[in-house]
Sequence to fold (550 residues):
Amino acid sequence: MRFLKSSLLGSAAAFAAVGGAHAADLPVKKAVPIEYVRVCGAYGAGFFYIPGTDTCLRVSGRARFEGGFQPSYTRQSGTNAGDTSGYQGRMRINLDARTQTAYGTLRAFVRLDAGARTGYSGVGTSGTQQRIGQAFPGIGTDQFGRDQQFVNVDKAFIQFAGLTAGRASSFFDFYAHDFEFAGATLGSDVFSTNLLAYTATIGNGLSATLSIEDPVFRRTPIFSPLAVSPMLNTGSTQNFGVTNQPTPVFIGYTGGVPTRYSFIDVIERSRMPDFVGVARLDQAWGSAQLSAAVHELNVGNVANGAGTGTGSNVSIPHTNNSYGWAVQGGLKINAPFIAPGDALYLQGAYGSGAQMYTGYCAYTGCYTQATTTIQGQKFTQYFSDATVNPFTGQLEQSTSFTATASYLHYWTPEWRSAFFGSYGEQSFSQSARLAQGAIFNLVNPNGTNTFGGNAVGTPGTRFFQLSQALRDTYQFVAGGSIIWSPVKDLDIGVEAFYTQIGLKSGRAIDQDKSPTAYANVAGINNGTFNPATATKDSISQVRFRVQRDF
Fold:
């Protein structure tokens, strides 16, 4: 046994010696060098070189909590109303990649926003963003209308040699609710649209931009008294999308009097892009901007067939496309002579057939012909870019204007406040309302009403005087905030504002106090039903926010 152990040990030692000798003859393999991330100082703080490239990248983001309160004026059965609060948890991720080239900086920027929202629409949830596919509703019994998941590719654009291409904020915009939480003041704020633009830098801070932009994000529906709405009904999803939005027009006459009607589909088609032109000046004292836009309005054809009614059957002309337009002027004045960081915005806009460019719908809700954000609102505001004249089949544009002022003041480096206010109006021509009244009279004989709250009524009647559809309205907003930033990039703040919505003339049926009024047209006209009426409505809202940027 001892002899066996000695033999084994001796053999192992011999193999080790031989192996060591051979190993000494092999080439030594060098370790792969580690490429450490290097700081890129060419574009400011936070950028680093992507390993193996000459591209600099900055990763940043945001986390936010927001809660709010707004009174509700009704809990009537069937209204699904009575909320007073709303909540949001939001996130944002930014990627900013830049490379220096012989033509200047090549930049790509991507931003993803997402979040969960609950509660009162306009405080927690957002009907505006749900209508354009940026938010998705829960459909449970207690969730529909009060629960949303929000996801939006907020930015995804390339900039190179004056060119901007991709998803970005509209070049038309200027103030865009810069100092606000809720964005309740009136004014254009399309923060995500698809565009192709070229900016020429002239010198001394002056630049000019021509931008071709996606028209979908600037559309307010053409008025339809039938107003088919996308919604979920009793668990069914059959009516979740709208593929036909009928508006009645005259197609037959008897003795010169309209006696036959059919329908035009007023859903707008995507054909021409919007054209936006901007002149901008940026200097140490602040900024100034002039913006102009052209926006196409177009609808479908009249329905095939003989329509409904008696008399001759005429061929109504195809509805021609129409071009809306808008202009805007903005001024930002830096005020370090009051306190470092102070600034004042002034902005005004006017448009025809282009309500989204004036931003009159900013508080109440956009991408709809009419809506109410206040639960129990007395009457509905109408925002349509145009109506279809039922006699001619042609579009008649509405007009709107808005004016906004906003001031940011730093009390100390840690405490700041914003004070803001705005006023605006939207108007429909008197002939547009009279024409809609004429078609109402034919489609709804003997005091009936198949148009619901969108009914104008027969001209000359009491109901026509009190109906809400296509009434000229005004709106003003005033509010302020206080924000505490105890450390860099952390904001804790409260915002409150007041909004009033009113008619420019006359009175309208108070839908909250007289919810059956639009089903009693004959009674209103003959004096047996006297609805409550109103000239204005108002609301206040308070929001609390905690936000960390990184």
